[in-house]
Design goal:
10 helices; 39% helix; seven-stranded parallel β-sheet; 2 domains; binds nicotinamide-adenine-dinucleotide; UDP-glucose 4-epimerase; UDP-glucose 4-epimerase activity; three-stranded mixed β-sheet; 326 residues; alpha/beta; binds galactose-uridine-5'-diphosphate; carbohydrate metabolism; Rossmann fold; UDP_G4E
Length: 326
């Protein structure tokens, strides 16, 4: 008998990969998604319940119908630039939506919650590798919406019967190795899909945002973590909660940084293609370097990332060559 779990935002990029691993490990994913940025065809390892997380009655109805053991909450608006242009939508979706979901979870007797947070809650890094005790001073509305939900989760878990694992992802990247699902954001702003689309000739080229950073080659350093490693960590987080684990915030990154120029070299090597690259000015809001200290994930969840930056790029290349987003 499979164990039902509610995957809110499960038709999106990270949620759909997590459904695949959940299904492999004996869970029955119930995907709740309003499809504003998700894809119905990504719901391959569970049942789809279409609905908006801000719609209390609909959320309660789905919880009542499926009686999930835990909720994994991925649903959010995610693009930092858009959060500066339209903060109302971000607070509405990410904060009100999450608080609404938590209220419905408590009413429905679901006590275990896994929340998608981000390294963007740390703000400007004060050390080379960031551990979970790093100060949290987010520098944009997107990061602040995630930080606010983290605080609510900590309060609810102290004062109410809720246990939560807050997962702070670094840069999610890569795709299912069979190319069935992958990174499909619209508009796409992430470096890897943009560079791959340039290599495929679907874009005119790639613009490097800033070459004057204090890094080994002047471009920003990021910790790219394979989406399947993230998915694995989510299943471990559910297992941990069901086994009686306490509320914790946990980084998910590899601990290895890659510069934008190194990333482009890997994409050239994997694809065997050259593409135009232009060096342009910095993008507002970018940190010089964001690299995880992932010790806590190893200790609490037994999590070790399995995939390298080459694996990430190979799997992303495979997905993008098969899939041409309209
Ligand atoms: N992609 C990254 O690198 C990254 C990094 C750090 C954190 N995160 C977080 O991970 C989560 C998933 O990110 P993703 O890249 O898979 O994004 P995504 O846009 O692919 O997936 C989000 C899903 O949530 C759904 N959704 C949004 N608002 C909703 C609402 N009000 N009601 C119901 N469904 C709604 C969308 O339709 C979509 O399917 C987000 O919470 C994001 O903030 C992502
Ligand atoms: O066309 C591009 C796109 C990106 N970059 C650079 O590539 C690096 C990675 O950029 P991404 O946009 O892929 O990722 P971010 O580090 O900006 O974003 C990550 O962190 C954000 C918060 O800071 C959000 O959580 C987001 O979803 C997550 O992917 C950055 O240095 C960026 O400046 C370019 O040079 N050119």
């Amino acid at each position: 008998m499979k164990k039902p779990v509610l995957v809110v935002g499960g038709a999106g990029y990270i949620g759909s990969h997590t459904c695949m691993i959940l299904a492999q490990r004996g869970y029955q994913p119930i995907v709740f998604d309003n499809l504003c940025n998700g894809h119905e065809e990504f719901v391959r390892w569970g049942v789809l319940e279409v609905g908006d997380v801000r719609d209390t009655r609909r959320v309660e109805q789905v919880i009542e119908k499926h009686r999930p053991l835990a909720i994994l909450h991925f649903a959010a608006l995610i693009e930092v630039g858009q959060s500066l242009a339209d903060p109302l939508s971000f607070y509405d979706n990410n904060v009100i939506g999450s608080l609404n979901l938590l209220r419905a979870a408590i009413a429905g007797g679901v006590n275990y919650f896994v929340f998608s947070s981000t390294c963007a809650t740390y703000g400007l890094p004060q050390s080379e590798r960031l551990d979970e005790s790093h100060r949290q001073v987010p520098i944009n509305p997107y990061g602040r919406t995630k930080w606010i939900v983290e605080q609510a989760l900590k309060d609810y878990s102290e004062l109410l019967n809720i246990k939560a694992v807050i997962l702070r992802y670094f840069n999610a990247a890569g795709a299912d190795f069979e190319g069935r699902i992958g990174e499909w954001h619209q508009p796409e702003t992430h470096a890897i899909p943009i560079a791959i689309e340039a290599a495929l000739g679907r874009r005119t080229g790639f613009k490097i945002f800033g070459t004057d950073y204090q890094t080994r080659d002047g471009t920003c350093v990021r910790d790219y973590v394979h989406v399947l490693d993230l998915a694995d960590a989510h299943v471990r987080a559910v297992d941990y909660l069901l086994a009686g684990g306490e509320t914790e915030a946990i980084n998910l990154g590899t601990g290895t940084g890659t510069t934008v120029k190194e990333l482009l070299n890997t994409i050239r090597a994997v694809s065997g293609r050259a593409f135009p690259v232009e060096e342009t000015s910095r993008r507002a809001g970018d940190s010089t370097s964001l690299v995880a200290d992932n010790t806590k994930a190893a200790t609490l969840l037994g999590w070790q990332p399995q995939y390298s930056i080459e694996d990430i790029v190979k799997s992303a290349w495979n997905w993008h060559t098969r899939h041409n987003a309209p």
